[in-house]
Amino acid sequence: MKYLEGERFRRVPLLAPSLEIGIESGLVSALHFGERRFDIGVEYDTEFLPVIARQATWRYKLAADARRLPFKPGVFSTIVMVHVIDHIPEIDAVLGEVSRVLRNGGCAYVSGAGPRLPVAGPHLKLLHCLGLPGLAKRVGEWLMVRYHQYHYYTREQWEALAHRHGLHLTSFEEFNRGLWADLWVLNHYWFGKKGGYFLFDLLRQSPVGCHIERLFERMTATIAMSQLAYEQRQTAESGNDVFLVLQKPELTRQIEPILNVKAAANC
Asked: Has residue 259 been placed in a domain?
C-alpha cells in the first residue's frame, strides 16, 4: 500500500516554501520523498521529536497542531499530509488552516482513507455472503473508529469540503484495490502490531534476521509491482485509499466572477 501511495507522492513538486503536516517518526516521509527536502515539518505527538531531530528531511521541525498552525496566512506554496487528515475528527478545522496558510495558487497534496475501506476485507465480504450486510456495515464502521479513521469520503464529498474552505479539488485518485488490498485490511485491523507486525519484528531480530528481511523485501517488491499493474488495468474499481490535490485559486481567478458581474452591470 505504501508503495502505491509513494508512486503518487514522488510526483509531487515540492515548491518552496513547503510544509509537511504529521511527520511522526519520519519513516514514511523518507520512503516517499527520498533525498528531497521540506522547509518545515510539524508533528502533534511530542514523543516523536527526539527521533525526527536527527533527520534531515525537513529544514525545521516543530510540535504543532494541524487545527491551529503557528504560521502567518499565505506562507506556503506546497503542503503535504500523508494519511493524517482521516485521523483528525475536526476535518473542517484542518482544512480551514490548510487554506489559510496556503498561498494563492498553492497546492495541498493529501492521502487518506477511501470510500471502500469501511466495507473492505474478507471478513466483511464473508458477512455479506452470509446475508448480513447490516452487520458488515456496523463492523466496518466500528473498526474505522477503533483505529481512529474518521473520514472516508467520495469525490463529491471532498469537492464540497474543499469548496467550503476556498479550495478547489483538482485531482482525486482512488488506489489500493482488489485482493491484496483486502488482505492488507485483514492484517492491519485484526493483527496489527500485536500480530503480523510483531511477528515480523521477532523474525528480523532472530539469527537469520538479515535473510528474512531480504526475503520480505523481494516478496514486497513482487507484490507491489503486480498490484501496480493490476490497478493500472482496473482504474474504475473503488479503492481503500485516496490521493487528493487541493489548490487555493489564484487571486485573479477569485475576483474574476466579481469583475464579470460588474462588467455585465455596466453594459
From this structure: no
